[in-house]
Amino acid sequence: MRFVAWALPSLGLLLIATPALAQESSQDPPIRLDRNYPNPFNPETTIPFYLGREMWDGGQRPVVSIKIYNVLAQLVAVPVLQGTGEGLENLELEWNGTGEYRAFWNGRVLRTDREAASGVYVYQLEVNGRRAGSKKMTVIK
Fold it and tell me: Is residue 138 classed exposed, middle or buried when 0-12, 13-18 and 19+ CB atoms within 10 A define those classes?
């Protein structure tokens, strides 16, 4: 009985919050962070993401960052943009005709260039200074 009493208020909050979130996201340009592949991986992985054409309206270019953190929330790596090799830290992107981009991580840790240890990592996409999504990935040795 105690479980039901706690579950109902939680469910109610989810139902109330969901339409507001859906409405807010329909006004924003579409941004999507997809699952990395392969996952789990060793030694490297690709992180696909998508930015809607609206991001370039008005002649502006979106500023994109992708960062990879360990479970202690410590910065581990900044992947590079596939095709250019530029680090994805505050990088102004040019429209590529599709809005589909790929980040590449070679599995190495910043500053030490050692291979990342086995475990779970979180990657986070930020567009124009706002967090646009995060997902988990697993390194297996």
Answer: middle
